[in-house]
What we know:
Order of helices and strands: EHHEHEHHEEHEEHEEHHH
CATH topology of the largest domain: Sulfite Reductase Hemoprotein, domain 1
Helix content: 25-40%
Oligomer: single chain
Strand order of the largest sheet: 3-4-5-8-9
Structural class: alpha/beta
Radius of gyration: 23 Å
Bound molecules: iron/sulfur cluster
Shape: globular
Number of domains: 3
Distance between the termini: 56 Å
Number of helices: 10
Amino acid sequence: MRWTSEAEAxxxxxxxxxxxxxxxxxxxxxxxxxxxxxxxxxxLRAKSELKEKASSPDEGYSVxxxxxxxxxxxxxxALCDRVEDFLREQDLTGFLRERVGGRLxxxxxxxxxxxxxxxxxxxxxxxxxGVIATAKLFFDRDSCDGCAKxxxxxxxxxxxxxxxxxxLIEDRCLRCGACAGACPGGAIRVEQVGYRVLVGGKLGRHPxxxxxxxxxxxxxxxxxxxxxxxxxxxxxCEGGERxxxxxxxxxxxxxxxxxxxSNQ
Length: 264
Ligand code: SF4
Ligand code: SF4
Ligand code: SF4
């Protein structure tokens, strides 16, 4: 895609750290409309249309997951698809449009975020509904030769070798499974992968970190908890407020576990 010198000069006014992203978005916008050259006039038109679009999402919900990498405990694709299907069926978009009384803003969206390990790259702690993959470990003492690789790899200091035998310090362990990956003889293994479920995170004027309501859920349990959370959210949401705001308004902070486990 060609850019005229005037358009390039205008683009230079965009802060350098987002310039590449803006260039790509404008080129995509222009390509979709059959243009092969970006002029200053076209750039301004694209800016106004993209700004308009960026301030109003198409959906009343979003489902994000981490990119996945060597640390991933599982593949989140299937769960992610099921969550998305459920939110679509729930017509959260129609629900929120009615509550908001018009166009949706991004801060109205019901956000789900999922991460395939405790590093939580998809910012699970500020989502309305967050899912973090977690490992259940199995230790086979007979296969351990005391090589200490597990102790070396654990960045949380949750494994300490005592008399050549690894001891797990439970309250430090984040169940990431890195020790199992490093253990040459399979003495520490990931026995099962489950999900931590967190609810009610948000940023804004009164930010709030999501609170954990379940420490080791199966895929079915995650979906059941999501069903309960969405039901609660629909029952109490006023004017498109976030789940965390509802929890704060109702004075439920700290009691989320009880609320969503018992489906009040
Ligand atoms: S959350 Fe874990 S698996 Fe996902 S991208 Fe981050 S480090 Fe990798
Ligand atoms: S699971 Fe992760 S945090 Fe826990 S002991 Fe192993 S490496 Fe450390
Ligand atoms: S890495 Fe495995 S074999 Fe080595 S000390 Fe740890 S548990 Fe034992």
